[in-house]
Design goal:
Shape: globular
Largest sheet: 7 strands, mixed
Helix content: 10-25%
Keywords: Signal
CATH superfamily of the largest domain: Cupredoxins -  blue copper proteins
CATH topology of the largest domain: Immunoglobulin-like
Organism: Thalictrum thalictroides (Rue-anemone)
Protein name: L-ascorbate oxidase-like protein
Family: Belongs to the multicopper oxidase family.
CATH architecture of the largest domain: Sandwich
InterPro entries: Cu-oxidase-like_N, Cu-oxidase_2nd, Cu-oxidase_C, Cu-oxidase_fam, Cupredoxin, CuRO_1_AAO-like, CuRO_2_AO-like
Number of strands: 32
CATH class of the largest domain: Mainly Beta
Number of helices: 6
């Protein structure tokens, strides 16, 4: 009898131990968001600081960690943060977009709690409200593989984040005022690399990073800019591409990489050259003007002596669309790597799944009431006072927006006559859909979809037709969250709509996003079950017409 009691106690204790161990680790961050004055391009200007840092602090996490980010908004305007590429599985409550969340009022705080569930890779965060992104507030977010999951390359000596992007010397409020008045954003004043533009005269160049002779380093490169595709290269060194937008890739080496708006790449660089300084270079692509930024990487001499300055002769940038398109076609998903797989229902066998719906997305530009607006299929999105997700959850969607005003296949007349209204499209839970992005304009487009990774199966010139499907890559397209479309071209993606919530599809060009080139997919689980979507958080900020309303009945298992 005593033995049975001891066995029962042991089983109980083991169960409790397993229960405690089953919860993923927690990482806690307190962010004090303020204004500050810096001179990134040599001109004093107002920037947004997080804990007095510009760019903001890196978040270094591991797959499935619980990230607790407590944001204190000490700006004079409402504020939200979004997490570019983090899928927020079942949890669009933490997406941090104007369509999903009420903003954090000035002088208040809000705590985000989310997991990079079954994700690895290189991402970034940014402020999604107004034009705050033009003042900073962005930073790197990396998600490492769990220790038990092998990575398809040896551990690097160190892991560095490189945030590149265009930059304006006008304040975010001045840029917003220009856009609100109907003016275009205009060309940027320069480029930044981790908040600096760099020098190329070899004088007083403090290194952004250091390397030891013979060691290999990981560099995570993200384009956090507002308007411009960039090319990134590393003086005197090749870069072995190992990951992009959260997926391991077939490891090819490149002398330079086109990094479009919202995209992140991870490369390995081996310090196998003469010990001296070398430049990392970012420069504009597909523009009539040429802007660049540099950052120094310094070899550490084995004897501790001072190394020679970097050569002022910078590696040349590529030209033309054909070069960029060929590079895109060289990217392949690493199907043999052990990693968190997106779309757990098995849609990584995407080439074998029947398409249930095709949606054509056509971007356009026009004027409404004499002011500049951008649109998707003739609808220029506006954010209502009550966030779309909250209106839907509280059962008052009909008082805030109308579903499905946007057609799956727009007519030429709808593209010419832009209307301004919330743009929300219903998508059936777990449907496998095809989205075609057509870009009839002369400028390159870049797109991001929250809540998902998708398979970009083709990019080609001209207009899409169903016959183009025979050219799709149906085997090893890289699963990712962003896609670019060259001028007068189209791109096709495929995905399973298996993540319930309200999800933003947007132009990564921030003037276009701000002036309407965005929309939301409403993906509702028919079961209203906790298996498919989490309940609204207890600390959710409420605003608009739902403020003061009784809480809806919570979801059940």
């Amino acid at each position: 009898m005593a033995g049975r009691v001891m066995l029962s106690v042991l089983v109980c204790c083991l169960a409790a131990f397993v229960l405690v161990q089953a919860e993923d680790p927690y990482l806690f961050f307190n962010w004090n968001v303020t204004y500050g004055t810096l001179s990134p391009l040599g001109v004093p200007q107002q920037v947004i600081l997080i804990n007095n840092q510009f760019p903001g602090p890196n978040i270094n996490s591991t797959s499935n960690n619980n990230l607790i980010v407590n944001v204190f908004n000490n700006l004079d305007e409402p504020l939200l943060f979004s997490w570019n590429g983090i899928q927020q599985r079942k949890n669009s409550w933490m997406e941090g977009m104007p369509g999903t969340n009420c903003p954090i009022p000035p002088g208040k705080n809000y705590t985000y709690h989310f997991q990079p569930k079954d994700q690895i890779g290189s991402y970034f965060y940014f402020p999604s409200t107004a034009m705050h992104k033009a003042a900073g507030g962005f930073g790197g977010l990396r998600t490492n593989s769990r220790l038990l999951i092998p990575v398809p390359y040896a551990d690097p000596e160190d892991d560095y984040t490189v945030l590149i992007g265009d930059w304006y010397t006008k304040s975010h409020s001045a840029l917003r005022k220009n856009l609100d008045s109907g003016k275009a954003l205009g060309r940027p004043a320069g480029l930044l690399m981790n908040g600096k533009t760099g020098k190329t005269d070899g004088k007083d160049d403090e290194p952004l990073f250091t390397m030891k002779q013979g060691k290999t380093y990981k560099f995570r490169i993200c384009n956090v800019g507002l308007k411009t595709s960039l090319n990134f290269r590393f003086q005197g060194h090749s870069m072995k591409l190992v990951e992009m937008d959260g997926s391991h890739v077939v490891q090819n080496s490149y002398d330079s990489l086109d990094v479009h708006l919202g995209q992140c790449f991870a490369v390995l660089v081996t310090a196998d050259k003469d010990p001296k300084d070398y430049y990392m270079v970012a420069s504009t692509r597909f523009t009539k003007y040429m802007l660049s930024a540099t950052g120094v990487v310094r070899y550490i001499a084995t004897d501790g002596s001072k190394v020679a300055p970097a050569s002022p002769e910078l590696p040349p940038a590529p030209t033309g669309v054909a070069w960029s398109l060929n590079q895109f076609r060289s990217f392949r998903w690493n199907l043999t790597a052990s990693a968190a797989r997106p779309n757990p229902q098995g849609s990584y066998h995407y080439g074998q799944i029947n398409i249930t719906r095709t949606i054509k997305i056509v971007n356009s530009v026009s004027t409404v009431d004499g002011k500049l607006r951008y649109a998707i299929n003739g609808i220029s999105h506006i954010n209502p006072e009550t966030p779309l997700k909250l209106a839907e959850y509280f059962g008052v969607a009909s008082k805030v927006f109308t579903y499905n005003n946007m057609k799956d296949d727009p007519s030429s007349s709808s593209l010419e006559n832009i209307v301004t209204e919330p743009n929300v499209v219903n998508a059936t839970f777990r449907d496998f859909i095809e989205i075609i992005f057509e870009n009839p304009e002369k400028s390159i487009q870049s797109w991001h979809l929250d809540g998902y990774s998708f398979f970009p199966v083709a990019i080609e010139g001209g207009k899409w037709t169903p016959e183009k499907r025979k050219n799709y890559n149906l085997l090893d397209a890289v699963s990712r969250h962003s896609i670019h479309v060259y001028p007068s071209s189209w791109a096709a993606i495929m995905l399973t709509m298996d993540n319930a919530g309200m999800w933003n599809l947007r132009a990564n060009s921030w003037d276009r996003y701000y002036l309407g080139q965005q929309m939301y997919f409403s993906v509702l689980s028919p079961n209203y079950s906790l298996r498919d979507e989490y309940n609204i958080p207890d600390n959710a900020e409420l605003c608009g017409i739902i403020k003061g309303m009784p809480m809806p009945k919570p979801y059940t298992p």
